[in-house]
Amino acid sequence: MIHQLVYYSRNVVQGNDRAMLTNLRDIVSASQRNNSRDGITGFLIFDKTWFIQILAGEQAQVSATYTRIARDPRHATATIMDARNVQSRSFPNWTMGGAMRTPEVEEVYLQHGIGSAIEPTRLKSAHVINLALDLQAFDAAKRQAQRLAS
Ligand SMILES: Cc1cc2nc3c(=O)[nH]c(=O)nc-3n(C[C@H](O)[C@H](O)[C@H](O)COP(=O)(O)O)c2cc1C
C-alpha cells in the first residue's frame, strides 16, 4: 500500500520570478536527494502565493517528510487536503517534479477550469493530482520538442 498526502501552504518567499525559480530549484534539489533516499515520489505545484504538493511513499516516510517540510520557513500554514492509502503512485518516476505557474502553462490551468488565481481551499485532491499530471505531461512534451529541434 502506498500512502499519499496532498497539502497546500502559503509561499512566503519574496522576489521576482527569477528569485522564485532559484528557490524552487533549491527545494527540488533537496527534495530529490532526500526523497530518493526515503522512497518518496510526488509533484510540487507552485505560484507566487501557494505551494501545493503531492507526496507518496511508505506511510512513516511520508509523515516524517511532511513534518520536516511543514517546519520550513519558506512557506507558512501548511494544511493537509487529503491523506490516504492508494493502490499506486501517481508520479512513480519523479522523486519530486516541480512546475511553477508561468504564462506558458496557463493553457493547462485553463483546461482545468482555473482561469485566475488558484484557490487551494476550493480544490479537491483528485483535481490537484489531475492538474499535476497534465503539467507533467506538458513539460515532457516540451522537453521532447526541444530534443527533436536540437
Ligand atoms: C514547498 C516545499 C516543499 C518541499 N518538499 C520537500 C520534499 O518533498 N522532500 C524533502 O526532503 N524536502 C522538501 N522540502 C525542503 C524541506 O523543508 C527541508 O528544507 C529539507 O528536507 C532539508 O533537507 P536537508 O536536511 O537534506 O538539507 C520542501 C520545502 C518546501 C518549502
TrEMBL record:
Residues 2-97 form the BLUF domain. SMART domains: BLUF (SM01034). It comes from the Bacteria. Pfam families: BLUF (PF04940). GO terms for molecular function: blue light photoreceptor activity; FAD binding. This is BLUF domain-containing protein.
